[in-house]
Amino acid sequence: MYLNEDRESDLLRQRKANFEELIKLGVEPYPRSFARTDTVEALVDAHGAKNGEQLESARIRTTTAGRVLAIRSFGKANFLVLSDGRARIQVYIRKDALSDRDFAIFKLLDLGDYVGVEGRLFRTKTNELTIWASRLEFLAKCFIPLPEKWHGLQDIEIRYRQRYLDLIVNPESRRVFEVRARVLATVRRFLNARGYLMQPIPGGAAAKPFRTHHNALDMTLYLRIAPELYLKRLVVGGLERVYEINRNFRNEGISTQHNPEFTMLEFYQAYSEYRELMAMTEQMLSEVAREAVGTDQIRFGDHAISLTPPYRRVSLRDGASAAASARLGVAVTPDDLRSRDKAAAIARKLGLELKPAWGAGKVATEIFERLNEDALIEPTRPAAPGGALRALRRAPRDRQRLLRAQRSHRPAAALRGAGGAPRARRRGGARDGRGVHPFARVRPAPRGRRGRRDRSARHAPDEQPVHPRRHPVSADAAPRLMNLPFESFIAFRYLIARRKQAFISLISFISGLGVMVGVMALLIALALMTGLQAELRDRLVGSTAHVYVFKAAAAGLANYDAEVKKLMQIPHVIGAAPAVLGKGLMTSGRGEQVPVTVKGVDPAAERSVTDVQKSMIAGSLDALRSVPGLPDGILLGKDIATSLGVNVGDSVSLLTLQGTLTPMGLMPRTRTLRVVGVFGLGLYEFDNEYAYVTLAVGERLFDRTKPDFVQLRLDDMFRAREVASAIPEKLGPDYLTQDWADMNKSLFSALWLEKMAISITIGLIVMVAALNIIASLVLLVMEKSRDIAILKTMGSPAASIRNIFMLQGLIIGLAGTAVGALFGCIIVGVLDRYKLIHVPVDVYQISYVPFTLLPLDFTIVIVSAILICFLATIYPSRQAAKLDPAQALRYQ
User: Fold this and answer.
1) If you compute the radius of gyration of the chain from its CA atoms, what whole number of angstroms results?
2) 795: phi > 0 → left, psi -120 to 50 → alpha, else beta; which?
3) What is the pLDDT of residues 117-157, one digit of tens each?
4) Please, which residues have CB within 8 angstroms of residue 100's CB and are 6 or more apart in sequence?
5) Where does 155-290 show beta strands of DSSP type E?
6) What angle, 0 to 180 degrees and rounded to 10, lies between the N-to-C axes of helices 360-372 and 340-349?
7) Strand, helix or coil for residue 411
């Protein structure tokens, strides 16, 4: 990057070694906070003008922090240069002014590290403002060396890809960021003060967007190109002044002059035209410059630029024609650039590449941008933009209606309705506009003056002794379908009969297919979530005890053998084991470090409460027992062993927080242990964090005189809460308990919420199918309006008509639900029995995805699907029952 590879690796190794030495000193490697009284910038601003005598008399003490940019040593005099990114200050380090620990920290510092300093201000002989340090705190280590002091960061690629590094070493880059933030804040204040509303919205334009595919929704999504169209829609909606400072993303080229991800300001104002907005823009730029950088007279490179209005005005075609004339040596007039052929010929002479779709305005714009942009130093605006570059402002066609949908070949026709010229009389049905009245002119028969006159559909005189296909057969010889109730018979006939409009049959089929897919997918998803939840629960409970028992601090578990005997007498308890727990930092010979949770256990008792022995990959739980002449043993989780690069028989060092008092202060306690086994419980939290030692070793490591708690195993894990509640009642209030469900409540709550979310999401498929059922029934009612009218005139009551269409919708729903349930159960059984969906064992700790379908889940899915399908039939069936027979038969 900045050094050759060998040199860089040497520096990295040295910095890591310094970091390890800092840890050995007892330094917190990543402290959470540091209380400073002043920033470096505040110190320099407040006291930078004071001389040495003023500083000595004031005895100013301060606490500050920053990054180390320089380290200089001159015998007993040592200096640091600290920076907070805005200013720098020198720090004077003397061994006799610091504690031994703080001076050792100074010796282990590298350039780029963060430190905190406390001391008083003074000036050195070279008149440098300096802090005489009385305390030094290490805050963070910089492992990768910063760029060289004198050359800075010159690599353009690194500067643009690693902005944080650019900000560290290049003060000018930081200033650009700060000025940009002030510019945006000032622009917002300027526009807000003039009544503009900031609207964060999506947007679009003609540029090529970045796009991706949303798998769950199966749709293409786009990053925003521009807010133009949507801001204009807000103006149309009545928001007269709107703006947005937005992020745009265009899938185009990238260079130091062109970034496809950029910030844009767009604002729109009703009842105004471009000259007014351009004048306001000039005023805004001037005010923003004065507030952001203190003046509207700025420098860019070798140019002095004035942002004071008014700005220079240049016509696009005048500027392009003048520049083209100077370049080609022949006269080019603005009129030449209004002709596409002439403008294209001029552009080719200038060496410009044109596209066939470009018009005269686009060609003139290309000439202007190629020849004029480099010469435009002062702020310049177009005096009269060409029509090709104006916003859309087309005049309406002759006789065209505003705010109406336009056809590409002719103006929109007038709406047919009340009022207007009378239409010609001609034959036709409802599609031709006939038979449409504001009120019904024939009252339903049941509501006539004579009261209810319709008779039961099963009344003998109303029944037809012929086959529906009009074959003369007797009622006794009719097919079995005729033996169904009247409503069911008609419903089945409508489903299986051929229709004039095959589209309705297709919708009915799609509706049933949608219900089937929804039920099947929902059953499979629930089985998957239930199986995973059960598998996770079994692994978790196998890794931990069912109940944990603690005692009040005064009583403790000093005589834990007696406590275990008492706890074993509690109903449902089948195993009990004491344990201690503590934290430590483990290292290996390779120099790797891993934080671990060390659990001290009785190997004989531990196998009765957890599955550690069953999960051993190498070694055994019994190997923890002490062996004369050898270091104490330790069992490691397989991920810890992998991280440290150790195996059975290797040695590791364990650093614990319990320290040993030495002349140098409290030093952390380090103990060498022998790896006697590696286990894999199948849960990342345990395999990557837990280690096991004997109870005696654990007590010595963490300065315990008795176990922390007793673990219990039950004959039924689901009785854990009951047993945990019974222990204080039977053995006394000194006993405190916690069961496995309480310890993992958040995990199982999250799994339950995920199961519900998936169920609701996939259940929407059934809702979509229900909407299809509504659509198919509505279309069927429209198609069968004549049949419905005939049935009503024959005496069928409204309830029978309603039941016909309800039954038809229910048949679709029941068929789809039944088939979906059948296929769902089959797929779940096959997937679970033959373990067809495999997953990486090293990632998920299981070799295949388990599926478990609970009877309750199955029942809820089936009942819910049928209920949704039933609700979908209510509206179409009610509309069919309300059909007016006279209106339906009027033009038949």
Assistant:
1) 42
2) left
3) 999 999 998 899 999 999 999 999 988 877 765 445 666 66
4) 664
5) 197-198, 211-214, 219-222, 241-249, 261-269
6) 30
7) coil
Identify the three-state secondary structure at position 734. coil
Question: Are β-strands 547-551 and 709-714 bridged in parallel, bridged antiparallel, or unpaired?
Answer: antiparallel
686 CB-near residues (< 8 Å, 6+ apart) = 543, 637
Positive or negative torsion for Cα 580, 585, 587, 593: positive
Say how far apart CA 86 and CA 91 lie, in whole Å: 16
DSSP code of residue 146: P
Amino acid at 764: L
Q: Residue 582: exposed, middle, or buried by beta-carbon count in 10 A (0-12, 13-18, 19+)?
A: buried
Structure tokens at 275: 């000259």
Q: What's the CA angle centered on 817, arms 812 and 818, to 5 degrees?
A: 100
Structure-block tokens of residue 454: 């319709």
Alpha carbons 268 and 253: distance in angstroms, whole number? 29
**pLDDT at residue 718, rounded to an integer:** 77
Tokens 């290049």 found at: 170
Q: How many helices (H) and strands (E) does the chain have?
A: 27, 24
pLDDT at 472: 39
CA distance 116 to 65: 4
Token pair recorded at residue 37: 């009284």
Tell me, what amino acid is at 248?
A: N
Dig out the tokens for 723 from the structure: 């047993």
The structure tokens listed for 64 are 């500050």
Spatial separation of the C-alpha atoms in residues 379 and 545, rounded to whole Å? 75
Structure tokens at 515: 């219900």
Give yes or no for a contact between 702 and 580, defined as CB atoms under 8 angstroms apart.
yes
The HSE-up count of residue 341 (CA atoms within 13 Å, CB side) is 0
What is the dihedral sign for C-alpha 399, 402, 406, 408? positive
pLDDT at 536: 67
Name residue 810's amino acid: L
Q: Reduced to 3 states, what is the DSSP secondary structure of residue 635?
A: strand
Q: How far apart are CA 598 and CA 676, in angstroms?
A: 15
Q: What is the pLDDT of residue 399?
A: 34
Contact indicator for 320, 292 with CB cutoff of 8 Å: no
Q: How far is CA 360 from the centre of its chain?
A: 47
Distance CA 2, CA 8 (A): 8
> How many residues are given for the chain?
892
Measured CA to CA, the distance from residue 109 to residue 73 in angstroms comes to: 12
Residues 576, 564: Cα–Cα separation, whole Å: 6
To the nearest 10°, the Cα dihedral for 669, 674, 679, 683? 20
Chunk the chain into consecutive blocks of 10 residues (it has 892) and report each block's average pLDDT, rounded to whole numbers.
55 89 90 91 91 90 93 87 89 91 92 93 92 94 72 64 74 82 92 82 59 78 80 86 87 69 88 88 92 87 87 86 89 90 90 87 88 83 55 38 32 34 37 33 38 40 39 40 67 66 68 85 85 72 81 69 86 91 88 89 89 88 86 91 90 80 62 91 81 90 87 86 87 84 69 71 72 77 78 79 86 89 92 79 63 88 88 87 74 52
Write down the pTM of the prediction.
0.41
Alpha-carbon gap, residue 369 to 384, rounded angstroms: 16
692: β partners: 599, 635
- Report d(CA 650, CA 589) in Å as an integer: 9
Structure tokens at 358: 């470009």
Q: How far apart are CA 30 and CA 590, in angstroms?
A: 22
Task: Give the separation between CA 890 and CA 886, rounded to whole angstroms.
Answer: 6
Rounded Cα distance, 477 and 473, in Å: 6
656 vs 74: CA distance, rounded Å: 38
Residue type, 440: A
**Side-chain-facing half-sphere of 95: CA atoms under 13 Å:** 8
Distance CA 360, CA 343 (A): 6
- The angle subtended at Cα 57 by Cα 51 and Cα 59, nearest 5°, is 100
| Cβ count near 303 (within 10 Å) | 9
